[in-house]
Design goal:
By secondary structure, the protein is of the alpha/beta class. The chain has two domains: 72 residues, no CATH class; 152 residues, Zincin-like (2-Layer Sandwich), CATH 3.30.2010.10. The chain contains seven helices and eleven strands. Strands 1-2-4-3 form a four-stranded mixed beta sheet, covered by helices on one side. Helix 4 crosses helix 5. The longest helix has 28 residues. The N and C termini lie far apart (47 Å). InterPro entries: UTP_pyrophosphatase-like, YgjP-like_metallopeptidase. This is YgjP-like metallopeptidase domain-containing protein.
């Protein structure tokens, strides 16, 4: 054993160097419909093996805790292959931001239409009751322009809702950030920064209003105690409907703006 290896081993024993995961990047499962590749992600804080579909791509991902063997991972995943196939088949297909796609904006379907003009702009038109999101400029930039426009609309609606709720309970966030997260629709940091997923602009306005009320309430209570929910109810009396909508429909919003498989 070389000096470097010995030193690395000693440091590893006292916790200064974390052992590398021996897991491969993916494992292949067998099923009557064909092979299924599952991506493996090592997580030092994970307590158990978790199988899920990626919120954006729909690809299967397994989160693995430290010390678990490849054999155990493979056995677990193979035992759940039928569940995985059912989940994949029940997931709505990805919808890319491209010409002809239909995308919900404030819960209203909008057809994306490319206009071949030099100036890259995005605007909403209404033609015989049909809402059209007209996107001009280079078509190869269409997806980015649509995404940027949706982020801008989300920031405007969320800023207005946050300001309204903040005034009601006498609080004020330090800033408002727009992100693209899959695990949370919103968050409130100890520094009073409110963060939101821009995809909430695709939900009904009442759901966006609930989400804003939820995070503003955290400026009063950084927990989910009865006092916290009392603040939420005071700000948004129908908040239960917003929670239910996100629970039932939230995953669908993550399929938009993703290239089809």
């Amino acid at each position: 054993m070389s000096m470097f290896s010995q030193e690395s081993g000693s440091l590893r024993k006292i916790g200064l160097i974390k052992p590398r995961s021996s897991l491969p990047q993916q494992v292949r499962l067998t099923h009557a419909r064909g092979p299924i590749d599952v991506q493996l992600k090592h997580n030092a804080r994970a307590k158990r093996l978790i199988l899920r579909l990626d919120g954006r791509t729909g690809e299967p991902v397994a989160t693995c805790p430290p010390g678990i063997s490849v054999k155990k991972v493979s056995q677990f995943l193979q035992a759940h292959v039928d569940w995985l196939v059912d989940k994949q088949q029940g997931r709505p297909p990805n919808v890319a931001f491209e010409h002809g796609a239909v995308v919900p904006i404030r819960d209203q379907p909008h057809t994306l239409e490319h206009l071949d003009q030099a100036r890259g702009t995005v605007r909403v038109l209404e033609d015989e009751g049909e809402k059209i999101l007209l996107v001009s400029g280079n078509e190869s930039h269409m997806a980015r322009r649509v995404t940027d426009w949706l982020k801008k609309e989300a920031r405007a609606d969320l800023s207005a809702a946050v300001a309204l709720h903040s005034d009601k309970i006498g609080v004020k966030p330090s800033s408002l950030r727009i992100k693209d997260t899959t695990s949370r629709w919103g968050s409130c940091s100890s520094a009073r920064v409110l963060s939101f997923s821009w995809r909430i602009i695709m939900a009904p306005p009442s759901v966006l209003n609930y989400l804003a009320a939820h995070e503003v309430a955290h400026l009063r209570e950084m927990n989910h105690s009865d006092r916290f929910w009392a603040h939420v109810q005071a700000l948004c009396p129908d908040y239960e409907e917003g929670k239910k909508w996100l629970r039932q429909n939230g995953r669908r919003l993550h399929t938009y703006g993703v290239e089809p498989e």
